[in-house]
Amino acid sequence: MQCYHVRMKLSDFDYQLPSELIAYQPLAERTSSRLLVVGHEQQPLTDQYFYDLPTFLKAGDLLVFNNTKVIPARLYGQKLTGGKVEVLVERIQNSRQALAHIRASKSPRSGTILELESAFYAEVLGRDGELFQLQVAEHQNILDLLEQYGHIPLPPYIERPDLAEDRERYQTVYAQKSGAVAAPTAGLHFDQALLKKLAAQGIETTTVTLHVGAGTFQPVRTEDLSQHIMHAEYVEVTAETCAAVQACQARGGRVIAVGTTSVRSLETAAQNGLLQPYAGDTRLFIQLGYEFKVVDLLITNFHLPQSTLLILVSAFAGYNTIKAAYQHAIKQSYRFFSYGDAMLLYRR
Length: 348
Hints:
This protein is α/β, with parallel strands linked by helices. It is built from seven helices and 17 strands. The longest helix is centred in the last third of the chain and has 13 residues, at 319-331.
């Protein structure tokens, strides 16, 4: 296979999106999003709705969901010395400590006390790269405090305060393991009725866990993609998931990743060529030329220009295929980004 990433640059993954195509709100029904089917042998581009998904899947296929749960990770407050702060928890370390991004007019030093949401205090213990380590009082639990007082961390391009409905809608219906600060958005289109329909059709399901970090929205800052360093995210692929994938492959079924996070989880666990249980951080950056070891089809949303996710889907379905698909989606007024419409991609 030709190794494209040697000559692909960041600017090759740019496109112009009219701002009215950014989805600022979710639709009333999860499954009523549109679905652009890309790379099907009979029809390269097909306009469908998400509730049509079962017609493209068959008994014996395996859907792989990311069961991470978005935590209300954003907090507003002030330093005890005055000065407003905005905290975005990136990773829970234990019951009292977390790593967080802090926006303030002046970076808080070790020992700074923050009063958050006029409800509790957190101490800045120090720094870990761009992140700050925070600790709450001995009798408190940081996850409980976030659930009670935190705000849903909507993506930066959704320029509105979070609403009560975002707690439900910026979350998949199968979310289980708390730890993400951004939703695995391809999964937002599934509701319980669709999951039941797929199960009745003989389509199997399994899960991985990837706690999506705020780094997913960080722009790539180097034109030379080989210089880009991926942010670390925690991944868990269990022995049960590996067995489900192997059983699917043995019966001739297809492995369908629901979201780029499921792709990165499975491919991380298969870096030695064989899918094996994995628990730990991943910094896997999938670019053109990457040889996929596990995933056959991918359900995904439309991604930001010049993002690692757009680069990943281009590697999966083909650069020119994705370019044509995005041009088609813009022309047909699809809704873009986290609350937007979806694509079903066949592997190139």
